Amino acid sequence: MGYILNTKEVNEVFKNWKKDSVIYAPMLMKNGGAFSDTDSVHYGEIQSIDDIVFDQKSDFSFKEILLPISETLFYFTEDSVKEPESPVKQAIIFLRSCDLHGVKRLDTMYLHNGAEDPYYKRLRDRVKFVLMGCKDSFESCFCVDMGTNRSDDYHASMERSEDGVRIDNKNPEWDELFAANCSKQADVTPSYVTETETQVSIPDSLSLDVMKSSMWKQYDSRCINCGRCNFVCPTCTCFTMQDIFYTDNGKAGERRRVWASCMTDGFTDVAGGGSYRQNNGQRMRFKVLHKVYDYKKRNGIHMCVGCGRCDDVCPEYISFSHCINQLEDAMKEVNGNES
Length: 339
Description:
It comes from Lacrimispora defluvii. InterPro entries: 4Fe4S_Fe-S-bd, 4Fe4S_Fe_S_CS, Helical_ferredxn, Sulphite_reductase_A. Keywords: Iron, Iron-sulfur, Metal-binding. By secondary structure, the chain is α+β, with helices and mostly antiparallel strands. The protein has a domain at 2-68 and 87-186. The protein has 12 helices and 12 strands. A hairpin with a 2-residue loop joins strand 8 and strand 9. The radius of gyration is 22 Å and the shape is globular. The protein starts with a strand and ends with a helix.
């Protein structure tokens, strides 16, 4: 049985949540867009249901809550090392189905790809997820083809409707809270899309032979290696290390891990002046095949969740979905050349 709450009742739930949790959701950032006098939808701390943007796709994903853009791993002095304290409060994150599938990809990389990452885990263990239902898809989404258009792996779901905010709760700890503030109960099933305007098809015959295709050369000139596609992606996990030395004591400071991008200069630089991928076509090839080939070979699911943010953010209008749809012809090209 689900719950239907009005705005006042939902905000009473939020008020209770905020006693020991920080609530994050997509919210409107006025004049926060990439261009002058434009708005943007980013994740931030919200205070009420009215702060949440339900009818637009967020320009950035939830990722920076679990994987901060810049995260201090430890502080150091001449003779000591100290890790920062763990967050005191829990976190509740509102997100759509594609992003909820993105959490699974982050978990795989940081918790099951070798030893557990303790910095990620201590944040991850303190998070609960509220699914935002999708009644309609957005222009660049291709979640249906990636199998991420619906999810049952949430603590609760919440979406606005004509009769109020419809909630499906799976967290027993919240049952009493919802029941105490509920004026109506009903069967609730989160909305999900079954068709998207943008569609992709990943060839069954896809192999690393596609690396030989000429399709990648177009990106040498088209891509400007800004890395925006990586930074808005909910499943990109790469970072680099920075040591920060304090000006008042050059022997003390902190080590941070900071988001990095496989699409930018310097990412594959190695000792001796070498670089594995020097041009943008090679970088695009690596990114695409990691998202729709390599990750699936290792984990059984594609890394890309079809949110379409990379298409939305690219200043050169490079479409990742279109790139995926070129792979079929690229495989034919390679196989034809080899025969």
